[in-house]
Amino acid sequence: KNLLQNMNHKCRCFCFIYFYFFADLLPASDGDIKTMTFLQEVVDILLAYIVESFDRETKVIDFHYPNELLQMNNWELQDEPATLDDILISCRATLKYAIKTAHPRYFNQLSTGLDMVGLAADWLTSTANTNMFTYEVAPVFVLLEYVTLKKMREIIGWSDGRGDGIFSPGGAISNMYAMLLARFKMFPEVKEKGMSSVPRLVAFTSEHVAFSCCHLPLLFLTSSSELNDVFLFCSGKLIPADLERRILEAKQKGFVPFFVSATAGTTVYGAFDPLIAISDICRKYNIWMHVDGAWGGSLLMSRRHRWKLDGVERANSVTWNPHKMMSVPLQCSALLVREEGLMQNCNQMHACYLFQQDKHYDLSYDTGDKALQCGRHVDIFKLWLMWRAKGTIGFEAQIDKCLELSEYLYNKIKDREGYEMVFDGKPQHTNVCFWYLPPGIRYMEDKEEKKKHLHKVAPVIKARMMEYGTTMVSYQPQGDKVNFFRMVISNPAATFEDIDFLIEEIERLGQDL
Amino acid sequence: KNLLQNMNHKCRCFCFIYFYFFADLLPASDGDIKTMTFLQEVVDILLAYIVESFDRETKVIDFHYPNELLQMNNWELQDEPATLDDILISCRATLKYAIKTAHPRYFNQLSTGLDMVGLAADWLTSTANTNMFTYEVAPVFVLLEYVTLKKMREIIGWSDGRGDGIFSPGGAISNMYAMLLARFKMFPEVKEKGMSSVPRLVAFTSEHVAFSCCHLPLLFLTSSSELNDVFLFCSGKLIPADLERRILEAKQKGFVPFFVSATAGTTVYGAFDPLIAISDICRKYNIWMHVDGAWGGSLLMSRRHRWKLDGVERANSVTWNPHKMMSVPLQCSALLVREEGLMQNCNQMHACYLFQQDKHYDLSYDTGDKALQCGRHVDIFKLWLMWRAKGTIGFEAQIDKCLELSEYLYNKIKDREGYEMVFDGKPQHTNVCFWYLPPGIRYMEDKEEKKKHLHKVAPVIKARMMEYGTTMVSYQPQGDKVNFFRMVISNPAATFEDIDFLIEEIERLGQDL
């Protein structure tokens, strides 16, 4: 803390920036010193915020309702420029009301925590401010994407890491790209002749899938209600026998099954579909097998847990989001594809203003033609630098620790008074889903009444958590199950004590309900 | 420079980090000082890189061919962790071979330059490391998106800034979202009943459109060849009378025209479609009018140039990428939509694990249901903070200056010996397209032979530019036009002298061809 104050003090010494404006910064001539001073001031604010974020005495969030927050600062945009001092004030205000995602007791999302090497890499990425579409404009980043995707394919188990892949803005887009590839693979004429040239397609997935899969039918498939017809559901898992029956049904109705998305780590329960059995069916009926491992794919890096994805090497494509379980700063999502060349063939449009064929270097490094997007944000450097810093074994240790913590939580509450688990058995991932029953409703006899009350418990406890700012965990209903807590652990800063704290806090805040 | 050295020196004093590893950083207990030291070292590297990037004596790029670059550093990923010192070395190596996008003579893409306030904002965004889907996890950023989108809609000319919108990962995705909205608006049943419930749709756009529009048909429309049939082309502009004729033709063939994408600033020529006339036709035939202003939308901020988009207020949706002409760091693309509520209705899936309806705050701020993506990167803060720092008038001045520079370039070369313009008349945007004819081919009589030679000129000059690292500008062929230079100016660091330099450099490097 002293050091920080010293550094802050040092920077205050050249506090002449207070009366300057953006126009005094680079590219202004003689803007060097002012620019460095300004950026250093910002960095000092950020460093203080980072140190504070890891401190358990700090609030996870200084929560205010939208209308209040609108009043707490002047957020409006003006015609006239503000001073650099005002810019620093805006930075401080923004961080003051931000959620501290690095906080060891922040468990609210699948992406939590803040990795220091990942952060450094993201600062560098912003400074490089370029685009992934060609080797010409991102030589190093394009090579690092190549190196990293190859490594990820090796880990999946494709021989010599052969295949293809791309980083996309998130799991939804990665899954969408996989569906496009599947459609193109089965009906290459779709590229020239369009949707009307292909029969009515149908895709299969487990019901408890992430947000993205629900949205894809909207985009370009058959109808969502038809998809619902063939959704399969059992504790959030695809059951192979059911899958086969549904495929046959769909065929009989005149649909063409073209895509099965098996989920490795469902969003709510963290369940893993049985990949080997599913791949047998996919092979039998010649259907593209996709593994949506946005959440669970990272378990491939753990020798202790990778058996949960046994069979993944049989998939045609895999989505794997390092920004979730591996704590890479947002956004970082990869789509890995087994067949080489397919992505290029599927998406290539030869936009000649970008992908000139007479360039003076090896064009196979121009990746822009592999995706629907033209510009792509540089998401690779964070992952690459973190991998460098931790090594594969560092990621493994981090992932194993999160799973250990969730097992600890599960063991702690499974027989504890006032708790009920939402699904039976040990969680496969770090998702622990449970109800907390406050003493007041614990012994209610009227089951419907009890359910009605229980439904309101999690929202109230969550709202109180946010008001106190002590911790944050997600809740939700699911089907006929009333609101339950969905605890997920991806935060490398969390410890056994934080799990204990969470339980105490839920009980403290729910005591009177 | 002295200051920088002092600061570097200061940090070297606590150079004890050299033997530490990532595991010594936060969240390690007592990791505060080590973390701050490490991050400060990275920042020092970045500050030095920034100052260097703006220096015209520095190379734009230290270019190496892919195979060479692979050898120049150990980029491979290992099982074991590297030291923090190695991490710093990796950062330096990455920047050494990176393209200096901030360099005043970097003209290669539509997105060039590096804004210091935008950069500071991006560093803060990385540090906050959150997701845009709910107010709960991004309270300030969600409010700032709300404030900024409203301001952008006011500038478009929608009364009181009413309407809707979202920031997406880029122009291709923004345009895709617009198409989905158009389809849903005309056929709301598509959401429930799928593609097979709607007739064969057809969309219209000018031929010289950006990369993204060519890709969209692949995704979910009718075939691309059918689309090609109805593509319109004349100097890259939609001609209203042609458009109407094509619409009638398509209807006669049984297609349903549902979407016209007028381009405000084409990628190659920078041409603006006549929006008022196009909107008349769209109204007459009840077709969704989209304006793809990814490149040209920013001209709305210039009182001198916004007439080029007259009629934009009649559009149903507008794509506008502040990461291009406004120099906001990548990525920053907005889709603005005139009708309120439509986005939510079109995309809403009620993923209950994210968008609980019993939360304790105003749910209208949960934006995640407005898009296909689930997680969305925080792209708003860069734009908001830059707007704050420059004011609307600051953006205006920056844009006006780029257009002035391009006019200067156009005037300088239009009658200069050895130059030919690719299209007639003054460019509407900053795109100046031209051929440079080296003395050796300038007076060739055989036209075919001359063309063949000319085609090879731009690639060679460009390759030499990259090898010398002095400047970078794009080239391409188009239709029957052989390779020409496409100069675009979006870099706020560029001056009249840099334009002079570019011309001298082209002549110097092309002299012997």
UniProtKB/TrEMBL annotation, chains A, B:
Spell out the Gene3D superfamilies in the cross-references: 3.90.1150.170, Type I PLP-dependent aspartate aminotransferase-like (Major domain) (3.40.640.10)
Cofactor(s), by name: pyridoxal 5'-phosphate
**Chain positions found as N6-(pyridoxal phosphate)lysine:** K324
Instruction: Give the record's keywords alphabetically.
Output: Cell membrane, Cell projection, Cytoplasm, Cytoplasmic vesicle, Decarboxylase, Golgi apparatus, Lipoprotein, Lyase, Membrane, Neurotransmitter biosynthesis, Palmitate, Phosphoprotein, Pyridoxal phosphate, Synapse
Q: What is its EC number?
A: 4.1.1.15
GO annotation, cellular component aspect = cytoplasmic vesicle; cytosol; Golgi membrane; presynaptic membrane
**Tell me, how does this one assemble?**
Homodimer.
- Give the similarity note: Belongs to the group II decarboxylase family.
Fetch the PANTHER family from UniProt.
Answer: GLUTAMATE DECARBOXYLASE 2 (PTHR45677:SF11), GLUTAMATE DECARBOXYLASE-RELATED (PTHR45677)
Q: According to its UniProt entry, what is the function of this protein?
A: Catalyzes the production of GABA.
Which named protein is this? Glutamate decarboxylase 2
Q: Which source organism does the UniProt entry give?
A: Anabas testudineus (Climbing perch)
